[in-house]
Amino acid sequence: MAEGSDDIQALIALMARLPGLGPRSARRIVLALIRKRGGQMTQLAQLLGSVATSSRECLICGNITDRDECAICIDPARANGEICVVEDVADLWALERGRAFRGRYHVLGGTLSALDEIGPDDLGIPALIDRIRDQRITEVILALNATVDGQTTAHYIAEALEGSGVAVTGLAQGVPIGGELDYLDDGTISAALRARRKL
Amino acid sequence: MAEGSDDIQALIALMARLPGLGPRSARRIVLALIRKRGGQMTQLAQLLGSVATSSRECLICGNITDRDECAICIDPARANGEICVVEDVADLWALERGRAFRGRYHVLGGTLSALDEIGPDDLGIPALIDRIRDQRITEVILALNATVDGQTTAHYIAEALEGSGVAVTGLAQGVPIGGELDYLDDGTISAALRARRKL
Ligand SMILES: [Zn+2]
Ligand SMILES: [Zn+2]
């Protein structure tokens, strides 16, 4: 038993399975927590416990919340007819941090993928189409990743909404703010060039 | 409130302060935990709680343990007269994983540092000298980091033990196993060259 106690070893093993961590970083984190155990570690344990019991998916949009319907879905100020479709809750959070979008969301929970046999029903796309119709949505922004699967999914949803009178848009592609051309992939540079605008 | 709930935000903020993590990696980890909350998150909360309450420093060597004296210090098979002095508990764990050392340890909890005003008393070096004398230690292995402060500390301890009859040794320096010369710093290459051995 190299690492202190059975509990410490189990804690390191569990931490090491978290995304981005491994045995080495898990050991460093656990040691740091033990050093300040009085405060941080107890607080972390309590928060993990309460988040574990209270967190669930918003029944409307799929955002993570501690109620049946998330704060965004029940905010009357956000019923502006716009719905932003994202792949993942992390993308919703990133958009909210940007504070540029004031409508509502729909989290797909993935993308269409022939390889992984994920079809429209697996992502609840029929339910999304119903929601767009029922809630009198006027614009659907497909904020999906600029990957092959993300763009395939965006095209599928855009086609399913054809003729419905809803405006379907996507995020602009181009050079990220602060981005150095030298470090961007060729596809991004070409897309930015094609979408060039007058200054 | 971009991130789900106040508890989730607090959890992310706390996680982001752990060594090697930041807001981005903390968000990814918390999202992954929420997705499998039933199992992993509750288990993690419980383990953190129990480690926080039960972990403490071994009264003899400074290792992390859940008893007054750690498993290494009470193992009669390890009373072989050898004591290995390390800077940090993480170093002790690393040596134990290597399974090459079968004696006991002493964790300094740091190194001598003029800059940070850390002297011999702050590291409990007088207590270490007493321990070496009382426990009839025959060899002291100074497994300190190959940094300036680590080596200063090693020299200080070696001098303090001069004339005591105890053999004082240090780890061999050289090319790590699998190490490519091209990627090593010059100091390591020079040290490995000076310590070259016949094949
Ligand atoms: Zn919602
Ligand atoms: Zn001990």
UniProtKB/TrEMBL annotation, chains A, B:
Keyword Zinc among UniProt keywords: yes
Record CDD domains: TOPRIM_recR
Swiss-Prot/TrEMBL keywords: DNA damage, DNA recombination, DNA repair, Metal-binding, Zinc, Zinc-finger
Region forming the signal peptide: none
Toprim domain residues: 81-176
Zinc finger (C4-type) in chain: 58-73
Known role: May play a role in DNA repair. It seems to be involved in an RecBC-independent recombinational process of DNA repair. It may act with RecF and RecO.
NCBIfam families: recR
Name used for this protein in its record: Recombination protein RecR
Provenance organism: Paracoccus maritimus
